[in-house]
Amino acid sequence: MPKNPEESVDVQPRLLVVSQGVESLNYIGVKRVGEGFEMDCEVKAEAAVCPSCGSKDVSVKENVRRVFRGAPLNRSQVEVVCQIPIVKCHSCRKTREVDIDFADKKKKYTKAFYSYFIKALDSTSITVFNKVFGVPLDICYLAFTDYLHQEYVSNKISNVKEIIIDDILINNGDIGFTIVMDLETKRVLSVGQGHAPDALDEFWALLGPREAKKIKAVALDPNASYVSSVASNLRNASIIFDRFHVEKLMDQRAGLEKKYIFSSSSADQKYLIEADEFATMEYNAFMDPQDRLDLLREITEPLTLAFILHEDLARIWRRQTRETATNFLTSWIEKFIDYDNPIVKQMTECIDKYSEEILNWFDNKVNVKPLQDFYKKVAEIDLTIDKYRDIDYYKLVFLGLHDPKIIRAIDQPPLWW
Ligand SMILES: [Zn+2]
Questions:
Q1: Residue 276's beta-bridge partner residues?
Q2: Which domains, and CATH codes, for the chain?
Q3: Distance from the alpha carbon of residue 50 to the mean position of ligand 1, in angstroms
Q4: Above 50 in pLDDT, residue 247?
């Protein structure tokens, strides 16, 4: 029974019904609730059929009231309240809630809301959508997560030839993921939690043995836990320690040295290192200039050596062929391996150990720029776990990060909000 809906509310019932995609329902009425509308509907009597067998020979046991977020109308939020009958079927004897066509009963929003929201993300972000239309953030993030799921999960992997595997940290470094990226399409194919070899299990399952055979090159971090997993799952692929990862490794070693120097230094030395920029150190009037120079040299020498090594090794990537690169690396190792300094020795041994995989790059010069671009995007987004965004949310975001729509959606709000 319609109960004087439209008199008090300045909205056409027909417009409301069409905008919410609820033409299959009986419209009961609408009322203002705060800044928005609440529309009452019910399932039509003839639509009360058994959801299991389709029989019309049913009796209604009761109605359940369900509330769904609807598509915003004239910048106002809309809630669709629907009475859904639970029917007892006289054919199959099951008692079930009848099916509805305007929403998924497991969701908190209508299909119309979802379409409206996803379309809006072509030109705006989630935060702005929330501010403009007053739709709660939890609903926005639920719909956005469903979108990511639908678009990017279980995408078939086919004809991928070159991949890169790397680890990434979020939430201020306490949660780690292993990502696998297709270097050709620049898409993240899989995001596994953690860094251990089993973080790749999901990817191997998704890839399957047939597609695994097609992968010809894998660039990765010389992290032993990945190497063994890759070697046993991608038997046709060449394992490459690319420039990006080798330099990262050298930087990490140098960083460790810096920490080592720091921890082994006296209080005076600590002061000097904290200043970090040695050239601009504050003048210490109580120290003899020669002593100061000696001290500086003692502290900075290992670190400087590490950087010299790093720079010197970088010349290898200018070599054109594996042969010339092999010659370079052999003489490079010979030059430094017996150097009378533990840091240099250790770094050289490390490169010696990985030389085969470093040289593999010259047979298959994979370009890892897509991974660097991916990190640039990641650096711009907020990676905090909170009540709207959990670990799975970030796994999905990483899978969609090649898409400008996803970047825009998760963008921080403009300053004027
Ligand atoms: Zn039935």
A1: none
A2: 13-104 (no CATH), 121-152+381-417 (no CATH), 162-241+366-380 (3.30.420), 243-360 (no CATH)
A3: 5
A4: yes
Distance CA 341, CA 337 (A): 9
What is the 129 CA–ligand 1 centroid distance (Å)?
42
Phi-psi region of 333 (alpha: psi -120 to 50; beta: other; left: phi over 0): alpha
| Contact residues for 13 (Cβ-Cβ < 8 A; gap 6+) | 5, 6, 27, 30
Whole-number Å distance, alpha carbon 47 to ligand 1 midpoint, is 13
CA of 60 to the centre of ligand 1 (A): 13
Query: Which pLDDT tens digit goes with each residue over 252-304?
Result: 777 666 666 666 656 655 555 554 544 445 555 566 778 777 777 777 777 78
CA distance 283 to 380: 39
For ion ligand 1, residues whose CB falls within 5 Å: 50, 52-53, 55, 89, 91-92
Which residues, 6+ apart, have CB-to-CB distance to 279 below 8 Å?
A: none
CA of 24 to the centre of ligand 1 (A): 21
Ligand 1 centroid – CA 96 distance (Å): 9
Local structure of 158: helix, strand or coil = coil
Q: Is 0.85 topped by the overall pTM?
A: no
